[in-house]
C-alpha cells in the first residue's frame, strides 16, 4: 500500500545575505521606512501572511501605554524574537567577516 511521507513544516526561513542587508537597514531607520523594509524582509524570508510582524526586537517592552486594554493582553512573539536574534547573529558574523575577522566589541 503506498503511503505519503510527511514533511516537517517547522523549518527555519533561509537567512540570505540580502535578508541580513535588509535587517541592517531596518535597524537604522524607523517609521514608514521601517515597515517598507519589513515587507521586503518578509518577501525575502518567504514568511507566511500571518507571521506579521516577522521580527520583533526582544529588548523592547510592551509597546502599549499602561492602563490600555491592549497593554494587558500584549504578549511577546517568541518566534519573531528568535528570528530577530538569528538575523542579529548573522549580521554580526557578516560584519566580522567583512572587517577581516576582527573580534566584535559589544
Secondary structure layout plus pairing:
Layout: H1 17-27, H2 32-45, H3 69-73, H4 78-98
Helix pairs in contact: 1-2, 1-4
Description:
The protein has helices at residues 17-27, 32-45, 69-73, 78-98. It is mainly α and 106 residues long. The chain has one domain (14-58, 76-106). α1 crosses α4 (78-98).
Outline:
With 106 residues, the chain is mainly alpha-helical.
Number of domains: 1
Low-confidence stretches: none
* Computed CA radius of gyration, to the nearest angstrom: 17 Å
Query: How helical, in percent, are the residues?
Result: 40-55%
Report the sheet-strand fraction: under 5%
Distance between the termini: 58 Å
Total E-strand runs: 0
- Protein structure class: mainly alpha
Main sheet specs: none
Amino acid at each position: 500500500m503506498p503511503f505519503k511521507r510527511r514533511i516537517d513544516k517547522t523549518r527555519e526561513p533561509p537567512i540570505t545575505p540580502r535578508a541580513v542587508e535588509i535587517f541592517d537597514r531596518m535597524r537604522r531607520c524607523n517609521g514608514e521606512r521601517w515597515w517598507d523594509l519589513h515587507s521586503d524582509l518578509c518577501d525575502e524570508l518567504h514568511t507566511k501572511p500571518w507571521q506579521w510582524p516577522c521580527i520583533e526586537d526582544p529588548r523592547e517592552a510592551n509597546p502599549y501605554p499602561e492602563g490600555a486594554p491592549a497593554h494587558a493582553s500584549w504578549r511577546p512573539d517568541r518566534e519573531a524574537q528568535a528570528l530577530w536574534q538569528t538575523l542579529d547573529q548573522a549580521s554580526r558574523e557578516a560584519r566580522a567577516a567583512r572587517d577581516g575577522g576582527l573580534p566584535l566589541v559589544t
